[in-house]
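call fold(seq) -> tokens
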Amino acid sequence: MITQLKAVLFDLDGTLVDSEGQYTRMWSEVGRRWAPQVPTLAQDIKGTTMVQILQRYFPDADVQRQVVESIEEMESRMDFTLFPGAVDFVLDLRRNGLLTAVVTSSDTGKMQKFCQAHPRFGTLFDRILTSEDFHASKPAPDPYLRAAAALGVGIRQCVVVEDAFTGLESGMRSGAFTLGLATTNPREQIKNRCHHVWDSLEGQTFDTLCRAVGLRGRED
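ret:
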């Protein structure tokens, strides 16, 4: 368990950004057009990188090109809505001296589009790591281990905040205290895949996080 908390490492989609429903619809459309033999494609690819998806499900180079173009076109029309309470929670963590990072399977192109929609977003985090920053993607522990190293802290001094099965596994395998959000999957399906579950970030603070990980907050 954590004895000293120094950093919080956040997934992006489904954790800070209410985008999972949009991505489910996007990848369902892609699946219907180019991978009808995989009816669960939209669920199967959650938390994985574009490179992994293309290699695993779309081996043909011409189809890969069409898939990428289709996703990029749909992403250009996405509504990148931050979850209620997400910004307030991050700001409270930083006011209390914690480092913060985003650790996402999205690539830099997607992050650039997102930061254009939310210019303030980048100022909320000490580091933003994308799929280009690690060799092995979630569910491997590498993304979160890389993030901790980039911040100069030990992984056991970090909390990972995740929603997807692959991300929760990545956090647990890294050795970090892993906090699951029931924003994408029901609480019952993630409670055995992490150390603690919140329904959302709304209303959460540095103090509620301290209590979740077993440390004393200011109100104790």
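The two ends are 19 Å apart (CA to CA).
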